[in-house]
Design goal:
Helices cover 54% and strands 0% of the residues. It has two helices and no strands.
Length: 59
């Protein structure tokens, strides 16, 4: 079964907020003695994601 690809378009501010939230989640999980491997994988994907400039037209 093929996995679905998801695309999300974020501004620099939104991207920064997502990264900070994931870091806080990771720190919280570590403080409670739980595994944070899944959060690490998402952080890596977001930080290595290609940045694409798009233009938005409001009609």
């Amino acid at each position: 079964m093929k996995q679905k690809d998801f695309h999300i378009y974020l501004t620099e501010q939104e991207r920064s907020q997502v990264i900070q939230s994931l870091i806080e989640l990771k720190n919280s999980l570590i403080a409670h003695g739980r595994y944070a491997d899944a959060v690490d994988e998402v952080l890596i994907k977001i930080t290595k994601a290609r940045k694409k400039r798009i233009s938005v037209r409001y009609v």
